[in-house]
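Q: I'm a student working through a structural biology exercise. My instructor gave each of us a protein and asked us to get a predicted structure, then write a short paragraph describing it. Mine is Short-chain dehydrogenase/reductase SDR. I'm not confident about reading structure output yet, so if you can add a plain explanation after the tokens, that would really help. Here is the sequence I was given:
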Amino acid sequence: MSDDVLQPPQDQDSQPGHELEMTPQPDCQPRHPGSDRLAGKVALISGGDSGIGRAVALAFAREGAKIALLYLDEHDDARETERLVMAEGRECLVMPGDVGDEAICIDAVAQVIGNFGALDILVNNAAEQHEVEDLSDLTAGQLEKTFRTNVFGYIYLAKAALPHLPKGGSIINTTSITAYQGHRTLIDYSATKGAIVALTRSLSQSLLDRGIRVNAVAPGPIWTPLIPASFSPDHVASHGASVPMGRAGQPNEVAPAYVFLASDDASYISGQVIHPNGGAIIGS
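A: Happy to help. First, here is the predicted structure for Short-chain dehydrogenase/reductase SDR. I'll explain a few features afterward.
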């Protein structure tokens, strides 16, 4: 493996991390011209300020969608994503708030309806992860917080969005390769990502009669702010080395999977998971 596919050692002291502090900057720009596959649609993206969320927001905007971003407190990153969405000629609504609070999720959906008059696509993407070297180090507080962000928040947003999603609407959940392979030091995070796979499959069946599709994307190692905010500098430097392609993926290599699942191209697909993970073979 050549050094030019790895990133320099670095870390950040708070989650979910800040994209503006990363070296090199993740590549979130869409790589191809749009074709209006989401023209006239309104999308709400949690964790939309940076990383995969930013890349999805820009890809959706290029395909014609209006964008609403729900993020925790990374205001500089959110403003930059807003600027980039508007540069695509699309409207963008930015909303700070913790998805682990159901009242905030209800209010966020209300703001989307108040600003845009509709909601067609929900992308549940916000997440946090914390390493523990041994199960005995996993505190009740961390366990509850990780599940509240990574699972409860997905349910809260889906529940709030459901009365507004039309026939043909789409919910896309971000799970992870760790749902299938596990992770030695991300015990609670991996458990939440497994729960998201089960949630996706259950919701897809529950909402079938309403014509709403529910799918998920399970990224492998992607270069996002969550990485330097989660791991030691040495770990960060080798992030992505374990997959067959030998490198971390960029957010704009993941975003097309969300565009596909949100569009009519995926009209016969529900309850499924797409795996942009650098070549790892994953069982279903």
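A: Here are two points you could use in your paragraph. The CA atoms of residues 49 and 102 lie 20 Å apart. The helical segments are 51-62, 75-87, 102-116, 140-161, 178-181, 187-206, 233-237, 251-262. It's a good idea to check both against the output above yourself.
Q: Great, thank you!
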